[in-house]
Amino acid sequence: MSKSKTNRQSILAMPEFAHIKEALQTHAHARGTDVWQPIRETPLEVFFAKGDHSFENEIPNPYLPSLWKDRYGIRIGEMAQGNAINGGYALKETVSVPNSLSALKIADEILEGAEPYSAWKQYSRVIDMTTPKVNVPITKYTDTVGGSLTDQKGIQIYKEGGTGTPPAIGGKVETVELDTSGTNNSYRGTLAVERNDVKDNNFLAVEQSLKNAGNEFYYMVGEDLITAQVAAATNTATKASLDSATPSNSELEALIQVIRGEFPGSQRNRADTMFINPLDAALAVKNAGAGGEYAFISRFILGPTDAADVVNNSGLAMSLGLRNVWETPQIVQGTVLITKRDINQVVGLREDLTIENFDLSVGGLYESDLVIRYDKKAAHADVGSFTITAFNV
């Protein structure tokens, strides 16, 4: 079957996958697990039979139904014959396992590679685009009709005088256009799957190629969003101009000045997000203890203790009072970006990671492209961000 655009969800929604979808959903509902757990945890080679060229010839593993039943309690194929019960739920139908079941695994491999850098969806305000062009309203807390911070009368302009019409009150709303029509803001790369790896049943090489593709796209999307925010920032100052007159910890003093001073000042909002290069983060933490005591008192003093294997996560958020600090090479060394994410940048996601020209077969991977479509626009960079430059000087 030919599909011009496919992803994990669209494959599972196909009629021939109804049996698999039912089994996965009932198992997840009964166990309280993710519906994709069995797909994610089953190696690609387990979807295929043993023997030479089984991958290339797409010979399914006849033991997969029994393996899934033993490992997860999931009943598919012949394991669902009769009045089968899956996790306490009766299965409505028993059909054969589609030969293209491995297509779900292939699509999931790309997502598995992308997930470590999926944090970009938290970098800004993300809008799901239901049409190629969308006008998105943007606002900031100081955009008001009627009273303003510069109006010396303040609340007095709303004082009732007994006559006339009350003045307008409320926010002003501007819009920005997000455009992914045609090839605008569409990004495409051909999946680099080697034919010899498929012929030789080199499953690990194929899996790594797919993971690398997802990882590369998501990492670069995040880098693009951060770079655009740095370029749009109108509030900027050097570390030396933000620290104390006689600094004892220049990095920490500059960060505090921006987070505690520059943002709440006249902007009616608090910073909640920071992007910092790992080398700059290390400098800030090391110098915070130069006087004998660390200012960053937390269990994250030497780094995050979570299970993430990438660096775009940081323990500095706890110490600085921010929601997220992304300690990542996606921002250049020497520049620190601090933002209020919901008013600084708008990102429209038209098409998440999608495989095009994939016919759900292993051979279909040779000519398949990975595509993502999104647009980004600065919202109110004048009050939504602050950039510290020369941070490493």
How do you describe this structure in short?
With 393 residues, this protein is α+β, with helices and mostly antiparallel strands.
What does this structure look like?
The chain is an alpha+beta fold and 393 residues long. Among the domains are: 3-41 and 61-96, no CATH class; 136-178, no CATH class. The protein has helices at residues 8-12, 18-31, 37-41, 64-72, 102-114, 195-199, 203-232, 239-242, 250-262, 264-267, 278-288, 316-320, 341-344, 381-384; strands spanning 3-6, 85-86, 89-90, 125-128, 133-138, 144-145, 170-171, 174-179, 186-190, 236-238, 273-276, 324-327, 336-339, 345-358, 369-378, 385-389. The longest helix has 30 residues, at 203-232.
Descriptive tags:
5-stranded mixed sheet; globular; 393 residues
Q: From N to C, what is the helix and strand string? A: EHHHHEEHEEEEEEHHEHHHEHHEEHEEHE
State the assembly state of the protein chains.
single chain
Residue share in helices? Answer: 25-40%
Termini separation (Å)? 59 Å
The number of helical elements comes to 14
Structural shape: globular
The SS-based structural class is alpha+beta
Sketch the major β-sheet: 5 strands, mixed
The averaged pLDDT comes out at 87
Pick out the low-confidence regions: none
Proportion in β-strands: 15-25%
Please compute the radius of gyration using only Cα atoms: 27 Å
- By DSSP, the count of extended strands is 16
